Amino acid sequence: MRILLWHGWLLDGSGSNVATARLAERYRAAGHDVVLLCQERHPERYRWIDAYGTLDAGGPSELTSQAVKHADGRCVLLRPAIGSLIPVFVLDRYEGIDEVRRFVDLSEDQLGSYLRMNVEALRAAAEWHGTEIAFTGHAIPGAAIGRRALGAGRYVAKIHGSDIEYALRPQERYRELAREGLVDAIAVVGPTADALDRCAALVPGFEHLRRIVPPGVDVATFRPRDRTEALREAAELLDADPDAERGRPSSVDEQVERALERRDAPALDALADTYDQAVPEPDAATRLRRLATSGPIVGYLGKLIPQKGVDLLLQAHRMAEHPAHALVVGFGSHREWLAALAMALERGDAEGLAWLHEVRDIPIEAKPDPRLGTPDREVTFTGRLDHRYAPDALAAMDVMVVPSILSEAFGMVAAEGAAAGALPLVARHSGLGEVGAALESAIGRPGLLTFDPGPGAVARLASALDRVLELSPGERDELRRGVSAFVGREWTWDRTAAGLLAAANAG
pTM of the predicted model, to two decimals? Predict the structure, then answer.
């Protein structure tokens, strides 16, 4: 079958990016002819992309072929020409993009130009490819682009979650744009009932088209491993990674310390621009080796932005009765503020904590405690660890916390952590709560893997950490195997790919 995937961004760094990459890879492996439209700047990094080029209203450029692993199908990546601006839901840095702007900040002219160029590119790609079925990403802009480029009943619209909370909810113009695309889709696919419910509450009229298709996990890669082996393997890979030299040097911590002591918010903000956030930190390998012989590890993997609630984990990790090391894997604009928070917590610096709350509205619930500076409660940051390293990092965690404070469509990292044998501990809300409840049901332990969000969440998360950490190592291992086995049965990319095709055919 000739399958086209439209996705407006990259192939790594977020849930929808990863999902798009995995689906394209699975369809190619299954023998389909795949065209992938996205803004990925480094297609050469993906050994399942057979050829790549750019795309405008006139069709594709001359394609560059590359040597790839064998498959029965084929995948061509085409990058639509959209000018110098890329709209996003949450601000972040994008390599090779001159201007990044939130959808809600676009002028009407900017939005119109962006939509027009993508519509022209999608139409040209579908005609060149002879597309039989198209999947468009996000309620906006993908669904409307699919409707304008291909016509009614020619595409399946996939919603993810960020489109709902960061575009549809704030602005009526995006609700109208989403309605244009969703009501004429073959099917509207979402990862959870919650995500579809939230979208339908804002954009009614497509309820009869709803289909739940959970995302998947690469269970061959995310699997339980011996902690020491996993961390040492990740460290050896990091030793050979030349990109790490551009990452955040340890000396930045001294500047964070001085900025915290001076209460200098602009200085903390400026530090994020002094290194490349999209790579591992240079000392990550050394830090992981040190953790290989530590006690229990509680961890986080994802974006370091306020919406993800990492500050809750840092505080709960210090408040819990059972000591553990904290491993924070990720990158983002909040990195230096989290480093400052970790320092203030370690020192029991009440004034510093109050300042962080005042200038960045970080909810501070932890109280100074004489245990806070003990060596068995260290916090380790690694910077960004991509798909080469993330499975090993997750396999090393006893508990992986997903403390997001805003609605999540699914929480794919929770499923990845579970597959790797890390017991996920997730906020009990939105689609994330559905994932937590499914995992609890799978192991027959209701309430073990979730905690209530909102005021007082730090204390509840600390108690939840204690509930898991007080289990015997043997019981924890049994539960780890249980959640991993559940993901391997229910949440795989093969099942996701098949579910999407079934939704297209059912429509």
Answer: 0.91
